Amino acid sequence: MDNTPVRVRIAPSPTGNCHVGTARTALYNYLFAKQHNGSFILRVDDTDIRRNTPESEQGVFDGLKWIGLTWDEGPDVGGPCGLYRQSERLDIYLQYAQQLLAQDLAYECFCTPQELEVERKEQTARKEDPRYSGKCANLTPEEREERRQQGLKPSLRLRVRKGAVAFEDIVRGHVEQDAALMGDFVIIKSNGIPVYNYATVIDDHDMAISHVIRAAEHISNTFPQVLIYEAFGWEMPHFAHLVLMLNPDKTKISKRKGAVYLGEFAELGYLPEALLNFCAFLGWNPGGEDTQELLSLDELQERFSLERCTHSNAVFDTVKLDWMNGMWIRRLAAEELTPRVLPFIIKAGHLTPQEAATPEATAYLTALLNLIHERLPRLDAAPEILAYFYQDWQLSEVDTTSILANKSNHTPEEILRVLQLAYELISHEPFAAHHLEEVFKQQAVALGWKLGDLLMPLRVAITNRKVSPPLFTTMELLNQERVLARLSLAMAGVKEAMA
Ligand code: GLU
After folding, report:
1. Which of 98, 410, 433, 468 could be bridged to 472 by S-S, CB 3.0 to 4.6 A?
2. pLDDT tens for residues 14-67?
3. Which is higher by pLDDT, 27 or 129?
């Protein structure tokens, strides 16, 4: 690589939400910048003024911050380039356009949308690719003045040269297209607003962007951008176009088929660390001997390289994402998970926000999370898994069928006696998990019951479920009083079922 300082950028449109594709592009740019002691710039592509609100921009910033990315320059943090929103740079685009006009590299076009539509239809009818005919390419100053007098406002078009338009892509190698496919394209619309391809080139040049790393969707935009660089006589940045992100069925990921915005992933209980890690592998892998898949941002920074970006499209495999999420949940301590799980507990109605704010509630949840840590696939699963710690139930809801079910043909009477015995033991023995476990093991031997047969009715009585974390620790976390109350309720249920 030459000695030009590395300056890369992400240029999201302010859509109110941060798309996971934007997050991946941001991540690759970030990693590349960090590795080369470069700068990562956030620029807002907000020339579609109708859609822009401060909130729509904030949504994108928040998403990027949630996933753990920060930028060195941008509209919110400032930087040497001053203006980082395209909407604030409209004068700059017009000034540069004057330069092209003066050199006759661009011209004014007075064609109305209706005329262009007619032209497009005729071309399509002739089975030609629609492109501008060049009708206004050679208007005389008088003709232009005449149109102006008629109240027509011109757009500006670039004069597109003949021949191949090519660039070297770091991921894809040599890419080229025949300029004839393009036709003279608009760079500034008749309302004075620049088109994306033009504004992007001006910004990338003005901000001394060294590498443009973005999604494959923009390859077709790169050809007109190359022509604009040529028209100005500017050196082009290096380009790297990342592969598409596809569903397992090879369709492009879209809102219709599942979550695509970072806020949606957060609501589904994905950890930002896991999603970031997952995104890193959507178009890159460390290769060679390195099979480590769980990587933090710092670890990714050590390994990332543009040269190892893949050529074949990336599959957005949510099964893999879930696996990674579970692994990341295990990687974090229960204390770290607690504040992240609490909002889900509140949302499920297990605690009010006031209750959740107490140190006791936090400590309790941490203890519960320690119990289920290994089995938690996503944070949003926690309220359901932990429901019986927060909610009691009524007699009519007692699962007597499961309490009475057993493979050893113990009768309902025997099971009732066992529940009664458990009640007495739990009332009188010291209430500690390891001690109770010993006591119940001895009881199983004394009764000649399999330990499993003894514990199953107890488990269902205490949790109203057939599967739970280790039973005696569960009891300890519920506390003695609640355990006894649930045993009483279960016995009442069994009696009712037997009657
Ligand atoms: N606003 C464009 C996008 O979000 C920027 C593309 C580019 O990086 O040039 O896709």
Report:
1. 433
2. 988 999 999 999 999 999 999 999 999 999 999 876 667 778 899 999 999 999
3. 27
Q: Which domain holds residue 172?
A: 90-242
Atom in ligand 1 nearest the alpha carbon of residue 10: 8
In the set 153, 255, 347, 495, the catalytic residue is: 255
Query: Of 14, 20, 17, 5, whose CA–CA distance to 42 is shortest?
Result: 14
For residue 1, the model assigns a pLDDT of 60
Looking at 350, 375, 391, the residue that finishes a domain is 391
On whether residue 308 sits in a domain, the answer given is no
The whole-model pTM stands at 0.92
How many structural domains does the chain have?
3
User: Which amino acid does the sequence have at 385?
Assistant: I
pLDDT-derived band at 371, boundaries 50, 70, 90: very high
Of residues 288, 4, 233, the one with CA closest to residue 96? 233
Active-site annotation holds for 255: yes
Residues 405 and 439 in one domain: yes
Of ligand 1's listed atoms, the one at least distance from the Cα of 200 is 9
Among candidate residues 391, 414, 442, the one where a domain is terminated: 391
Which CATH number goes with the domain that contains 416?
1.10.10.350
Same domain for 447 and 344: no
Alpha helices by DSSP H, 36-157? 54-66, 90-102, 113-125, 141-149
Please give the share of the chain, as a percent, with pLDDT higher than 90: 91
Mutate to test the pocket of ligand 1, among 7, 8, 9, 13 (most ligand atoms within 8 A of CB): 13
User: Is residue 223 domain-resident?
Assistant: yes
pLDDT digits (tens, 9 = 90+) for 208-234: 999 999 999 999 999 999 999 999 999
- Give the number of other CB atoms < 10 A from CB of residue 181: 12
Ligand 1 within 6 A of 13 CB? yes
Same domain, 342 and 424: no
- pLDDT tens digits along 139-157: 999 999 999 999 999 999 9
Residues 107 and 233 occupy one common structural domain:
yes
Residue 95 has pLDDT above 70, yes or no: yes
* Alpha-carbon distances, residue 313 vs 78, 216, 286, 300 (angstroms): 35, 10, 16, 20
Check if 45 has its Cβ closer than 6 Å to any atom of ligand 1: yes
| 95: in domain | yes
Q: Decide: 214 in ligand 1 pocket, CB within 6 A.
A: yes
For residue 9, give the ligand 1 atom closest to its CA. Answer: 8
